[in-house]
Write a structure and sequence with these properties.
Length: 356
């Protein structure tokens, strides 16, 4: 196992060498060092954000977006585009590290999500995101992340206790992944720059009862794919927001190492403590947003935002109920299959928790 690990990590090291060569050329060869140096605060913030990106189902934009938008009071559109740009490095680096280590991935659902994102993300960038006001971008981010944080604060023991993955039907997994990629890419990722990873992860842990060791690496890869896609689409068509490049110059060398470091460290300390801390931060940013935008929202707006969080939580609980039903159906199928096979051979069927 160790021999295989060493044999494949050279791919990640080669990626790092290539990235830092390009970054050094930009800051030294082309003289962009003053811009990178001037934006050092975002680099400090992304040191934390990149760790969360590699160790949880929440991309680096989970920290980058509120820091730029709420702390530095920059436009929400800048926070969105920066999230795409910085995750295109950090999440890609973490994904290469994950694949080099041969960590288990829910491939059927991931492939479907990538196909759905390939269609949904560009459509969202062209047809949805341009018409979403800056305040609404902040609210979408705040509501989705708050509901996700609350879910983990009261369901973390159950989520962390899953083993393997419910084996139901690969075609079914692929179709679910397609819909997740299409809808989350168009309605969440294209608007906020993050989120498709969280949606896919939620489906895996609530619907398929997937082990965190499978669900989180899978979510990292879909966010990397969507971020790279978002950067390409925006650069070729709508263009990135002013200020993204300068902030990216400062943060990119940090996240290139920070996200893979999160993948490595969380394997040593466990995922539950990190998930709890990040979940708390997700809830905190909701109250931060409500406070900073109280004049624009008014009491009615804040109440509606809180109601939206509740609706998201009800949706999560419905997914969990569907997941329980699927587990029961799978168990019935396996029991029937075992009974049938026991009459003809000594072979047994895979367990419910086995990975495709």
């Amino acid at each position: 196992m160790q021999q295989k690990l060493k044999q494949h990590l050279w791919v990640w090291l080669l990626w790092l060498a290539g990235f830092y060569a390009v970054w050094l050329y930009l800051v030294i060869g082309l003289g962009y060092w003053p811009q990178a140096k001037a934006h050092w605060p975002i680099a400090v913030a992304m040191a934390i954000g990149s760790y969360a990106a590699g160790s949880t189902p929440m991309g680096g934009g989970t920290v980058g977006f509120p820091v730029l938008v709420l702390l530095f009071e920059l436009p929400a559109t800048l926070g969105r585009d920066f999230s795409f740009a910085v995750q295109a490095i950090g999440m890609t680096s973490a994904s290469i590290f994950i694949l080099a280590r041969r960590q288990p991935i829910a491939w059927a659902m991931l492939k479907g999500a990538m196909l759905g994102s390939l269609i949904g993300t560009p459509l969202g960038i062209w047809l949805i995101a341009p018409y979403i006001p800056g305040l609404w971008i902040k609210l979408v981010f705040a509501i989705v992340w708050a509901s996700f944080g609350i879910l983990h604060l009261y369901r973390v023991n159950e989520i962390a206790g899953h083993n393997g993955m419910t084996e139901f039907n690969e075609k079914w997994d692929f179709k679910v992944g397609c819909w997740i990629g299409l809808l989350a890419g168009a309605a969440v990722a294209s608007v906020t720059g993050v989120g498709i990873d969280m949606v896919l992860y939620t489906a895996l842990v609530l619907l398929c009862r997937t082990d965190l060791k499978i669900a989180i690496p899978t979510s990292v890869i879909i966010m990397a794919f969507t971020s790279v896609l978002g950067v390409i689409v925006k650069n070729l068509t709508t263009g990135m927001q002013p200020g993204v490049f300068e902030n990216w110059l400062a943060a990119a060398p940090v996240v290139a190492l920070g996200a893979p470091l999160g993948v490595f460290i969380v394997a040593l300390i466990g995922r539950k403590p990190t998930l709890l801390v990040v979940a708390f931060l997700c809830v905190l940013q909701f109250f931060w947003t409500m406070h900073s935008e109280r004049a624009s929202l008014g009491l009615s707006g804040m109440l509606l935002s809180t109601l939206a969080v509740g609706i998201c939580l009800l949706g999560f609980e419905q997914l969990r109920r569907w997941g329980a039903k699927l587990v029961g159906e799978r168990a019935d199928i396996d029991a029937s299959h075992i009974a049938t096979n026991s009459k003809t051979s000594n072979h047994t069927t895979p367990s419910v928790g086995s990975l495709k």
